[in-house]
Design brief:
The complex is a heterodimer of chains A (769) and B (464).
Chain A: H1 6-11, E1 27-33, E2 39-45, H2 47-51, E3 55-59, E4 84-85, E5 91-97, H3 100-109, E6 111-116, H4 123-128, E7 137-141, H5 144-147, E8 153-161, E9 173-178, E10 184-188, H6 193-204, E11 211-215, H7 230-243, E12 247-250, H8 253-259, E13 266-274, E14 280-292, H9 298-307, E15 317-326, H10 340-358, H11 362-368, H12 387-397, H13 400-413, E16 417-430, E17 439-446, E18 452-456, H14 465-477, E19 484-486, E20 489-490, H15 505-532, E21 539-542, E22 545-548, E23 551-556, H16 557-566, E24 572-578, E25 583-585, E26 590-592, E27 596-609, E28 615-627, H17 632-650, E29 657-658, E30 682-689, H18 712-725, E31 733-735, H19 739-746, H20 759-763, E32 767-768
Parallel strand pairs in A: 1-12, 8-31, 10-11, 14-15, 18-19, 28-30, 29-32
Antiparallel strand pairs in A: 1-5, 2-4, 2-6, 3-5, 7-15, 8-13, 9-10, 9-12, 11-20, 13-14, 16-27, 17-18, 17-24, 21-22, 22-23, 25-26, 27-28
Helix pairs in contact in A: 6-7, 9-10, 10-11, 14-15, 17-18
Chain B: E1 2-6, E2 9-13, H1 21-28, E3 47-54, E4 57-64, E5 77-79, H2 91-98, H3 108-119, H4 127-132, H5 145-157, H6 166-172, H7 183-194, E6 205-207, H8 213-216, H9 218-222, E7 226-228, E8 238-241, E9 244-248, H10 253-258, H11 260-265, H12 269-274, H13 279-282, H14 287-292, H15 299-306, E10 310-314, E11 319-323, E12 328-330, E13 333-334, E14 341-348, E15 354-361, E16 372-381, E17 384-393, E18 400-401, H16 403-409, H17 416-429, H18 440-461
Parallel strand pairs in B: 1-5, 6-7
Antiparallel strand pairs in B: 1-2, 3-4, 3-5, 8-9, 9-14, 10-11, 10-14, 12-13, 15-16, 16-17, 17-18
Classes of the chains: A alpha+beta (769), B alpha+beta (464).
InterPro entries (chain A): Ald_Oxase/Xan_DH_a/b, Ald_Oxase/Xan_DH_a/b_sf, Ald_Oxase/xanthine_DH-like, AldOxase/xan_DH_MoCoBD1, AldOxase/xan_DH_MoCoBD2, AldOxase/xan_DH_Mopterin-bd_sf
Organism (chain A): Niastella populi
GO molecular function, one term (chain A): oxidoreductase activity
């Protein structure tokens, strides 16, 4: 089945936030962001801006009727700056005018005087100064300090990953419309309608039942519209609440890029020990997460880094410590993978470092250490592992040995072009790691004409969740998909939702829908069984008819529903699903936080132009653990899209701030995401069919985030290609591997004595000094 | 009064000619299919097509409507995704649908419009050409593989076309709505009625394709009195006179790439042009704009510097010739009077013994601004360099010729020591800074590598 939105998408008829027909009297907002990353506001002059034609009012924190606070996990983030600013772009004032142009013109006339305070952009510096969002956390398994003597080989090093701009093509936005009885309706481009509802409720001082948040769909989210959608909704709501007029704000791309957080840059120190047989005996890692100026989702992201710090390997002795470091960058936030990719990059760097020193391909070490079923993760859960199956199938199917040989002979045959190969196994846990968030509700109405309307907490952002939910209902009722409509996500219809995130949305909301549909179908079957004087177990619904003992009756779906209504049987159901089995004790850092894991292996091949430092990613060959896909078209799209987004993060996507904390890569002209010519010529995806039962909806495992991490292979493939040209040059584990880093590494001289790091390129991690 | 045909509807509007087409279509015509993605021509979500009569042929080009003022579509046919909709899905949309080439859907209308642009072009029906038409469209969800598959299917749709006009073929085969067949006649009538160009008598701003000025000063231009240069016939054309090539200031990059003269003298032109922005930008970006914009990194500027182009300015009364290499006085400072306008430029076409090559490296190979770009124009006498001009961008406040390097190379034979020495001297010609496109150290190294690449290419092609 195709994505149910595809028809209106290709016709340009799908409605996004900026497409909602305007209500007469609508005003337009624009925010004035701090030009300075850290300082004390001594004066704010809005008089020139207010005098401009069309300007209705300029709001500051003084106008907030509730609490000036939008922090979700930690209350450390004001909506509008009070006395201090903590990052460049932090909203200081919100202009409302009768046109978008007038609002933006007014923003430029606002004058602010800020006494500057020291700016920190480097997470390690923040850690030294004790600037932590939460106390550090440590996951431990076995005992690393006792293990080092048993290791034949021990390597230490440092690795760094940069951030990543979400670059959803639809920018952030909200449209707030005052309603009667002091309530307010907000259209928001958000992954978390309840988060928006909560933030608006807090800022306005209104109870949640007066705040209606509605989401039709997003033009991309990728985590960027999880908590970070709250700001714009709260600003619009604040203005609408005061002015009693609808207020809309759809961000300009440059506002969006400058004011919103991104994937967290990480820096890490690692130490890895292997025995004679290349079994990894011990791994220690310390993560420095660049959280930005406020907590946002950083503590949860940090936690997932720890969960995935050993990727798909079993290591008996692990000690992983993570610091969430407060800097003066925009608060970094959720991004597909949610800290997992950073944790995986570091262990892959450690393995690559060992492999390079030992003069063997990393794949030899990778293969020897894959998780087996029953192995324990550092957080206590026992693996139900498909890691070896994925690896061995990929290795056989794509003939890894032959691929290695071809690369070697290619590299031996020419000087100026080198190929590189890397394997990237993945293991990603499915569930919100905050156990309480693993619940969802679905409201299913069957109408008397047999049509079905469904509302859930899921937000459609291209991932195809609504398609899967529709499939659930279509399967239970066994009716044509055309009879079913998935409605907008709305906090007045479904309450207390978790955001559409963690790859778990289809599982949670799909299961709730399954329960609701089963309840309605069950009542109807019971009615028919009584009518026909037979056992309920004999009744099935199939192809829009009632079947008894495998025989089709004359009773069709529509008349069944009508009969149910006449007999006063409930044709609606509001079902609640909570993931079973999961738990986690943060005081012990042990538990069973994930419903299941998704596994897979990718083989990534690249070619480097050793004159220019440019490169192509030629091929990505994958064996992926789908469980049993319920929609191959949707799932394949998630895999291809995730891979390319992961490759982007590892190659060309470079977030650059200067040492004043100002974003330099602040537009699409300076921040590059993959275009059609930069994607691998070949992406091959093979399914690992797994017979094991799991907690996924229809055993169709979650697919949103895991494939992104295949892209990490691109970094290591590039590194291998560079080393084929320059075997002795030392260069740091620092992603992304831009053409600049490749060229610098190709021509990095072999240094005598101590090896210096690339000061200039390292600085690109977060800061271009 | 601006007049044009929007899809199947005649438009006459008194709104400011400097208003961007995207805003007009979305917020005044309430056609919401074209999306606002980046406001700077870098994402393609707002892609539209314009059709105009060229030598009595209806020619369609894609463009980024976020950077296109209404004045630049005066007398033309503008096509948005709504104009492509028929009963059910058209075959382009069907291909996108069948291949699951849409996820969040926000970029999708732009892709559909760009592929329609392919169907309305006279390009050979290959998957490669269809893909080339979507090189300006960014998708953040799909990873493009499904879109590539859809593009290949769209190419198949056009395979039956022989000499027929693409518009007629597409309408007849129901690839596009039938009314497309009548557009040529309607445009002819419109152009006849308009009888000439839109001229503001009190222009304070000049706009060519708008690809740079609408990024830099969007707000100013919305209500400004503008003189539109893109369709000024006096500024168009690419021709050969003797051994010189003459290019009108308003010739677009696409026209440059399609010019028979350029193709004849620059056999690798298609690969150079592919490195310059994207199809919808090349369709409106002008050669003159690239030079006058004075970016230290303009691709065509670097190209033309190596060719030692001469500019022809006019202030309405007098004309003035100026070598391009003397135009740039400092960062974004020009030897140009406020009343002067670039009319055309010319350069000597490379002879038999002259080797020309262009190199560009950027973070992303396509649709990106160079970290460093460079061109070489080298005339050989036997194995001795008789004359050489290497230009480089991104390594100084202005696009420049590497004077010391060039002086050193004249009279030398091409060999490894010469190249190595030239690269060392080039380091004294330049003064790069660290910015979002790379660190100064990188740019220094990269320029040396590009010089190496010039000579390697020369050795492959000239000295074989």
């Amino acid at each position: 089945m195709k994505n149910i939105d595809a028809y209106t998408h290709v016709r340009g008829e799908s409605v996004y936030l900026d497409d909602i027909p305007l209500i007469r009297g609508t005003l337009f907002g624009a925010s004035f962001g701090s030009p300075v990353a850290h300082g004390v506001i001594s004066a704010l002059d809005t008089s020139d801006a207010e005098a401009l034609p069309g300007v209705v009012r300029i709001f500051t924190y003084k106008d907030i009727t509730g609490e000036n606070q939008i922090g979700g996990i930690v209350p450390d983030e004001p909506l509008l700056a009070g006395d201090e600013v903590h990052f460049c772009g932090m909203p200081v004032a919100f202009v409302v005018a009768d046109s978008v142009d007038a609002a933006r013109a007014a923003v430029k006339k606002i004058k602010v005087t800020i006494e500057p305070l020291p700016v920190i952009t480097d997470p390690r510096e923040a850690q030294v100064q004790g600037e932590l969002i939460i106390p550090p956390r440590t996951f431990q398994l076995g005992n690393t300090s006792d293990s080092w003597p048993q290791c034949t080989h021990v390597f230490e090093g440092r690795a760094d990953t940069n951030g990543q701009e979400h670059l959803y093509i639809e920018t952030q936005g909200a449209y707030a419309v005052p309603q009667e009885h002091n309530s307010i309706k907000i259209y928001s481009s958000t992954q978390g309608p309840t988060a928006v509802q909560r933030a608006v409720s807090r800022v306005l001082g209104l109870p949640m039942h007066l705040v209606e948040v509605e989401v039709n769909r997003l033009g991309g989210g990728f985590g960027g519209k999880e908590d970070q959608a709250n700001t714009w909704a709260a600003l619009c709501a604040l203005a609408a609440h005061h002015l009693k007029r609808p207020v809309k704000y759809s961000l300009h791309r440059m506002e969006d890029m400058a004011m919103t957080g991104k994937r967290h840059p990480y820096s890490a120190d690692f130490k890895i020990g292997l025995n004679d047989e290349l079994k990894i005996m011990a791994y220690e890692v310390t993560f420095y997460q660049n959280a930005g100026a406020a907590a946002d989702l950083s503590p949860a992201v940090l936690e997932r880094t720890l969960f995935h710090c050993t990727n798909s390997y079993f290591i008996p002795n692990v000690k992983a410590t993570a610091y969430s470091c407060r800097t003066h960058l925009p608060p970094n936030t959720a991004f597909r993978g949610f800290g997992g990719p950073q944790g995986m990059f570091m262990i892959e760097a450690a393995i690559a470092k060992a492999a390079e020193a030992l003069g063997i391909p990393a794949s030899v070490i990778q293969e020897k250490n894959l998780l087996q079923t029953g192995d324990e993760f550092p957080y206590g859960q026992k693996a139900q592992s498909e890691a070896p199956e994925c690896w061995h199938k990929a290795s056989a199917l794509y003939n890894l040995a032959q691929m290695h040989k071809e690369v070697e002979s290619f590299n031996a045959s020419g000087k100026w072009r080198k190929k590189g190969l890397a394997c990237m196994p993945i293991c990603f846990g499915i569930s919100f790691t905050k156990t309480l968030m693993n619940q969802a509700r679905s409201l299913v109405h069957v109408y008397t004409d047999g049509s079905v309307g469904i509302t859930t907490g899921a937000v459609e952002m291209g991932q195809g969740v609504n398609t899967k939910i529709l499939q659930v209902a279509a399967q239970v009722f066994s009716i044509q998909p055309g009879k079913i409509k998935i409605h907008t996500t709305n906090t007045f219809k479904i309450a207390n939702t978790s955001p559409s995130a963690a790859s778990a949305t289809a599982d949670l909301n799909g299961k709730a829908t399954l329960m609701a549909c089963n309840a309605i179908a069950g009542r109807l079957k019971k009615m028919i069984a009584e009518e026909l004087n037979t056992d309920v177990a004999a009744i099935t619904l199939k192809d829009e008819y009632v079947w008894v003992n495998g025989e089709r009756t004359d009773r069709d779906w529509k008349s069944l529903v009508m009969a149910g209504h006449i007999k006063r049987i409930g044709l609606s159901e509001h079902a609640h699903y909570a993931t079973p089995e999961i738990h986690f004790d943060a005081t012990k850092e042990k538990g069973h936080p994930f419903a299941y894991h998704v596994y897979g292996t990718a083989i990534v091949g690249v070619t480097v132009d050793c004159i220019r430092g440019t490169y192509t990613v030629d091929t990505v060959k994958v064996v992926h653990d789908f469980g049993a896909s319920m929609n191959m078209a949707v799932d394949l799209g998630q895999i291809e899209g995730g891979i390319v987004q992961g490759i982007g993060w590892m190659t060309m996507e470079e977030v650059v701030y200067d040492d004043k904390g100002k974003l330099r890569s602040n537009a699409l002209s300076t921040y590059k995401v993959p275009d059609i010519y930069s994607v691998p010529e070949e992406i091959a995806v093979d399914c690992l069919q797994t017979p094991n039962d799991n907690l996924a909806i229809f055993r169709s495992k979650a697919v949103g985030e895991p494939p992104l991490m295949y892209g990490i292979g691109a970094y290591f493939a590039l590194r291998n290609a560079v080393r084929a040209f320059n075997a002795t040059g030392e260069f740091p584990f620092s992603a992304p591997m831009t053409p600049e880093k490749v060229l610098m590494a190709l021509y990095e001289k072999q240094k005598e004595g101590a090896i210096e790091t690339h000061e200039e390129t390292i600085n690109h991690l977060a800061v271009d000094k | 009064m601006i007049k044009f045909i929007l899809n199947n509807k005649n438009i006459a509007t008194g709104l400011p000619p400097g208003m961007v087409l995207l805003d007009f279509v979305r917020y005044h015509q309430h056609l919401m299919g074209s999306k606002v993605g980046c406001n700077e021509g870098d994402c393609g979500a707002c892609t539209m097509l314009t059709g105009e009569l060229k030598n009595n042929e209806l020619q369609y080009r894609s463009l980024t409507s976020c950077l296109t003022p209404l004045g630049n579509v005066h007398g033309k046919h503008v096509v948005t995704v709504e104009g492509l909709n028929m009963e059910g899905l058209n075959p382009i949309q069907q291909a996108m649908y069948d291949e699951s080439a849409t996820q969040c859907g926000f970029c999708t209308p732009g892709f559909v419009v760009s592929l329609a642009g392919f169907c309305l072009s006279a390009k050979t029906a290959t998957a490669q050409n269809a893909t080339a038409h979507i090189d300006g469209n960014i998708c953040r969800c799909t990873g493009y593989k499904s879109i590539e598959r859809a593009a290949a299917k769209v190419a198949e749709l056009m395979q039956g076309r022989q000499q027929e006009e693409p518009t007629a073929f597409a309408a007849e085969k129901k690839i596009l709505p039938e009314w497309f067949a009548g557009i040529k006649q309607r445009l002819y009538a419109l152009v006849t009625e308009l009888n000439g160009q839109l001229h503001s008598s009190s222009a304070t701003e000049w706009v060519g394709g708008g690809t740079d000025v609408y990024v830099q000063k969007h707000e100013v231009l919305q209500d400004a009195a503008i003189r539109f240069l893109l369709d000024d016939e006096g500024l168009k054309g690419i021709s050969q006179k003797g051994n010189r090539c003459i290019i009108g200031a308003s010739a677009t990059v696409t026209e440059l790439g399609e010019s028979p003269v350029m193709q004849q003298y620059f056999p690798r032109l298609p690969e150079y042009i592919r490195l310059v922005s994207s199809t919808p930008i090349r369709n409106i970006a002008t050669v003159g704009g690239n030079l006058i914009n004075a970016s230290p990194i303009g691709d065509l500027t670097i190209f033309l510097l190596a060719l030692d182009a001469t500019l022809l300015f006019s202030n309405g009364e007098q004309k003035r010739e100026l070598p391009l290499k003397q135009l740039y006085k400092g960062y974004k400072t020009l030897d140009k009077q406020p009343g002067e306008q670039l009319e055309s430029l010319s350069f000597e076409l490379p002879g038999k013994n002259t080797f020309f090559h262009f190199e560009k490296v950027s973070k992303r190979t396509h649709l990106d601004i160079a970290s460093v770009n460079s061109a070489i124009c080298m005339t050989m006498q036997g194995d001795t360099i008789q004359d050489v001009r290497i230009s480089a961008g991104g390594v100084a406040p202005i696009p420049k010729l590497l004077d010391k390097t060039n002086a050193f190379l004249r009279g030398k034979t091409v060999n490894d020591p010469t190249i190595t020495a030239a690269i060392a001297i080039a380091q004294t010609d330049i003064s790069p800074i660290s910015d979002a496109r790379g660190t100064a150290d990188y740019k220094r190294l990269l320029l040396g590598q590009l010089i190496k690449a010039h000579f390697f290419t020369a050795v492959e092609t000239v000295f074989r």
